[in-house]
């Protein structure tokens, strides 16, 4: 393994969901991961390689549409809501509870766009796709916002492609 397990585990020593969503480092990592997943998904849907940056309002709309949002303090601005989404995704990925491949697959299935899709419509569709992704992976987070199961997942990704 290219990184010691101890060093990797230190990146995810959060005690609860609030710790996760308030971790600016996780949000930064999650920003890159979310952009990668969306770029791959959009490339697959359109059949051409593309690189995309997911706008904060897309992720904010996504996280605000799921019940999990009430656990993280539902009075947040767009930037903080997007950071919360990105931090959650980074944590799930670091804990090996979702893979990039599985995330891309989920987004692709919920991304009915084409070359003629307008920017506004694409934003709405992308928001729904990220909502679906969060809904399908939220079960990997603790149901109690003050407790996180710290047990390892033995390198497996519970949310993965069949």
What does the model show?
- This protein is mainly alpha-helical.
- The chain has one domain: Ribonuclease III (Ribonuclease iii, N-terminal Endonuclease Domain, Chain A), CATH 1.10.1520.20.
- Helix content is 55%, strand content 0%.
- The protein has seven helices and no strands.
- It has helices spanning 5-10, 17-21, 24-46, 56-64, 78-94, 100-109, 119-137.
- The chain starts with a helix and ends in a 25-residue tail after the last helix.
- Mean pLDDT is 84; it is low at 146-158.
Q: Would you tell me the overall average pLDDT? A: 84
Reported CATH architecture: Orthogonal Bundle
Q: H/E element string?
A: HHHHHHH
Major sheet size, sense and barrel closure: none
Q: N- to C-terminal separation?
A: 25 Å
Net shape: globular
Q: How many helix segments?
A: 7
Could you give a quick summary of the protein structure above?
This protein has helices spanning 5-10, 17-21, 24-46, 56-64, 78-94, 100-109, 119-137. The protein is mainly alpha-helical.
